[in-house]
Amino acid sequence: MSIMKPCDPVHMRQNLEMVETLRRANVDFIPMPIRDEAHRVQLSLEAKKVLDEYFASMEVEGAMS
């Protein structure tokens, strides 16, 4: 079992900037704790996939209107 490491100030600032960006875009999200860098990468890839799908669906809806 890996133990979570504290978030360094640079990553924390980046995380908070992303939260603000998602909030302004009215994107629903939940905060997710990470275990280590590999887990960060895994969750980031999952988030990217979901956001790509979200924006692709917005483009389709926009083209239909």
Short description:
With 65 residues, the protein is mostly helical. The protein has 2 helices and no strands. The protein is elongated.
Could you explain the architecture of this structure?
This protein is mainly alpha-helical and about 60 residues long. It has one domain (about 10-65). About 70% of the residues lie in helices and about 0% in strands. The chain is built from 2 helices and no strands. It has helices spanning about 10-25, 35-65. The longest helix has 28 residues, at about 35-65. The radius of gyration is 15 Å and the shape is elongated. The N and C termini lie far apart (about 50 Å). The model has no long low-confidence stretch (mean pLDDT about 90).
Q: Strands, helices and their partners?
A:
Blueprint: H1 9-24, H2 37-64
In helices, the fraction of residues equals 55-70%
Mean of pLDDT: 89
Q: Please give the largest β-sheet.
A: none
Shape: elongated
Provide the number of structural domains. 1
Q: Hey, roughly how much beta strand do the residues contain?
A: under 5%
The radius of gyration over CA amounts to 15 Å
Number of strands: 0
Q: Alpha-carbon distance between the termini?
A: 50 Å
